[in-house]
Amino acid sequence: MDNKLKNELSKIKDNIELPDSYKFKFKKTLDTLPSNVKRNSFKFCSLKVSVAVALISTLTIGSVVFGEDVKVIKDNVISFFNGKPTTTVGLKDKIESISTPVNISDEHDGVKFTLENMSIDDNFLICSFTIDLASKDLLFDPTSGYLNYMPDISYIINGKRSYSTPNTGAETDSYKESETKIKLIQRVSLANYSIEDKGDIEINFYNNCYKNDEEIYWSIKTSYDKTKSKAYTRNVPIDKDIRFNTSYSDEVPPTNMKIKNVCFSPLGNQIVIESCNSNFILMDDKNNYLETIAQYHDYDGDKSIMSIEFLTPSTDISSLKLIPVCQTDTDVPHITPLYDLDNMPSSIDLGDKKIIIEDVSTKDGKINLKYHYDGYHVFDYVETSIYDENGTQLGDRNDHGYGYRIFDRNSNSYITTHGFYTDANFQKAKKISFYMDSPIEIKYDEAYTIDLNK
User: Fold this and answer.
1) H helix runs in 194-284, sequence order
2) Whether the predicted model's global pTM rises above the 0.85 cut
3) Which of 2, 131, 287, 364 is most buried, by the most CB atoms less than 10 A from its CB?
4) Element (H, E) at 175
5) Vertex 84 angle, CA 402 and 268, to 5°
6) β-pair type (384-387, 366-373)
């Protein structure tokens, strides 16, 4: 085969949307073919036939592998992302990389509840659902209609309740595909539990419209398998007791905690601590501060268990430092001055932390404040209040509207939302204030180092 033809075929191979394994086989076949063949017309024609036969042979021999690759690609696609390309509950590529199709439904009382896909590793479970309603009147009750759709969903793994939601509430993302169809994706933490790699899972869904009748629910039973994620998971058992001093007063004794384990996995990273009642910041072996973005609480008998999700630029970490922090006794104002929603500063000092304002959106009956922290901080969401033009606070959220706070894992930003039940109240919202706290003291000399090279 002459080099020109060989190069053309190589270009075709590079431009075809095929799995990498098939392209590799295609390339190997091209590499085994001869170059600079004498241009005798008979031989040239024969060689073209030989090339065709060789490539067809590659397709035939590789068809089983190719078929499996296509199946994996197809199975990993989650339909939630057809109508919404990203989600705050995780990174699309990570979620789909360990996704398993389920497509099991439970249907009665005008509602069809379908579990479409499930992604699971040692730290998290992310499930995507479709909810089909016989009537749009079943969509929301009068109070939840203004919220993102956040139904009550429970997870029972191998016969035990085995999931945690963060202290800000369930991490759920949703949208209406139509007046009677909801696409929903939900993230829960599993790090507080010892869950086998394979087993059974039961998922129970309670529709808000039927919340006054606890007997009505939709249930799906299936199996799960975490082995797909094991090659990308690093779970380090620690089981070490430590003492932390997080008070500025010597009269307050140190607190005792147990570091149970640290786990890096495709869906997120967590450190699990027993009897954790102290504030700290995390630092890696290169002295980078690691941002903590969620806390999940539960109990093992009378022992409290907390798993803390954190971000890291790399999972190739040899150690972690837990550095205790305490609030100083410095007096600070309880709240900041009032800021105009349409003229927000680029940054705001909140005493123990500083935030950078990324965006303020006021539309569709909602105020969305998007921000991130400048430097280290103890895990927390900022507390805000909304006021009218004259500086009168618009009551609590139950009177005028609702609120929720989320962390967007795509942009690594925090989003605080204030929503209003009526347009009249929404139009009154003109100003915002932030809750402040005392500055923190970082006790570097009392840091505890966790060896991860075990």
Assistant:
1) 227-230
2) no
3) 131
4) strand 171-178
5) 80
6) unpaired
Per-residue pLDDT 10s for the chain (454 aa) are: 455 555 555 555 455 444 443 444 444 445 555 444 433 333 333 334 344 444 444 444 333 333 333 333 455 789 999 999 999 999 999 999 999 999 999 998 888 999 999 999 999 999 999 989 887 766 654 444 444 456 688 999 999 988 887 766 678 888 889 888 889 999 999 998 889 999 999 999 876 555 555 567 889 999 999 999 999 999 999 999 988 776 655 666 677 889 999 999 999 999 999 987 678 899 999 999 999 998 888 887 788 888 999 999 888 899 999 998 887 766 666 889 999 999 999 999 887 788 999 999 999 888 999 999 998 777 767 889 999 999 998 865 555 677 888 899 999 999 998 888 888 889 999 999 998 877 778 888 889 999 999 7
**If residue 453 lies in a helix (H) or strand (E), which one and from where to where?**
none
Give the Å distances, CA to CA, from 381 to 258, 264, 371, 373, 403. 25, 24, 10, 10, 12
Residue length, the chain?
A: 454
Q: Evaluate whether 275 touches 258 at the Cβ level (below 8 Å).
A: yes
Other beta carbons within 10 angstroms of residue 293's beta carbon come to 19
Q: Are 392 and 385 in contact (CB under 8 A)?
A: no
In angstroms, rounded to a whole number, what is the distance separating the alpha carbons of residues 306 and 292?
13
Q: How far apart are CA 222 and CA 198, in angstroms?
A: 11
C-alpha of 324 from chain center: 27
Helix, strand or coil for residue 304? strand
Residues with Cβ within 8 Å of 124's Cβ and at least 6 positions away in sequence, in order, are: 90, 187, 188, 189, 190, 191, 265, 267, 268
Full strand arrangement of the beta sheet holding 124-133: 99-108, 111-120, 124-133, 181-189, 171-178
Give dist(CA 279, CA 378) in Å, integer.
Answer: 7
What span, in angstroms and rounded, lies between the C-alpha atoms of 188 and 204? Answer: 14
φ, ψ at 148 (rounded to 5°): -55, 145
Q: What is the dihedral of CA 292, 298, 299, 303, to 10 degrees?
A: 20
